[in-house]
Amino acid sequence: MRTKQATGTRWTGGRARWAGTAAAALAVVGVTGGGVGNAAAASAPAEHPNLGPGAFSIPARPGFDYLGEFANVKDAPEGTGPIGGIAAMVVTTHATTTSISVSGLDPKAVYIADVHSTSCFINEGSGPFLFDPTGPDAPPNAIWLTPIAVTKKGAGTATTSSSFAAGPRAKSVVLHLKRKAGALVDEASPPKLACADLPRVTS
Q1: CA 46 – CA 30 distance, rounded (Å)
Q2: Of the candidates 132, 52, 41, the residue with the CA atom closest to the CA atom of residue 90
Q3: Nearest to 81 by CA among 140, 143, 154
Q4: pLDDT tens, 87-137?
Q5: Do 73 and 191 form a contact (C-beta atoms < 8 A)?
Q6: What digits encode the pLDDT tens for the residues 35-62?
Q7: Does this model's pTM top 0.90?
Q8: What does each C-alpha distance from 104 to 8, 27, 107, 112, 117 come to in angstroms?
Q9: What is each CA distance from 2 to 8, 13, 94, in whole angstroms?
Q10: In sequence order, what DSSP letters do the residues of the chain get, joined into one string?
């Protein structure tokens, strides 16, 4: 048993155990035309209508599953095209795995996503989620999804695991533009492009 640095509480397990569990039990998330479906526990893959087969997977049934769909935020920079896709979070007693699969990205740009502390309708996700609200705005105290790998067709994916369990303050995943296409430096304040709420879909 070790001490969790972010809050001083005690915890067991950790990244190594979670990594083994995730590798052993992957299931593809299916999304229907009518909205977000349940996180699948079966091994048979299901397709997202916009992303195709095998585009997105999360560990099967370890605890609480949260799943939502991306949509452009109102204040996205001018010229931002329609962004779609899904975000998922799987929370166990000792770990959190967050994944995104996004469409409509520019393969020449650089993106980052992170978990935020409010729903998308509140200031477009408001501020970042922090395991310890008084701690630093950076991993391991924050959940960042970077790098986001983007294909030539503009499909982006990323997954990250944290060695702590995210609580109910983790409300959404926000996609930011880190570097414009053709730019040599990152944005000083990466603008929000899209947001996905994280409603609980299984328990």
Answers
A1: 5
A2: 41
A3: 154
A4: 999 998 889 999 999 999 999 999 999 999 999 999 877 789 999 999 999
A5: no
A6: 333 333 322 233 344 444 445 554 444 5
A7: no
A8: 41, 24, 9, 14, 25
A9: 10, 9, 12
A10: -EE-TTTS-EE---HHHHHHHHHH-EEE--EETTEE-PPP-SSS---BTTTBTTS-EEE-SSSEEEEEE-EE-TTPPTTPPP-EEEEEEEE-SS-EEEEEEEES--TTSEEEEEEESS-TTTGGG-SBPBSSTTS-SSTTTB-EE---EE-TTS-EEEEEEESS---TT--EEEEEEEE-TT-SS--SSPPEEEEEE--EEE-
What does the pLDDT look like over 170-191, one tens digit per residue?
999 999 999 999 999 999 999 9
Residues 6 or more apart whose Cβ sits within 8 Å of residue 101: 48, 51, 55, 56, 85, 86, 155, 156, 157
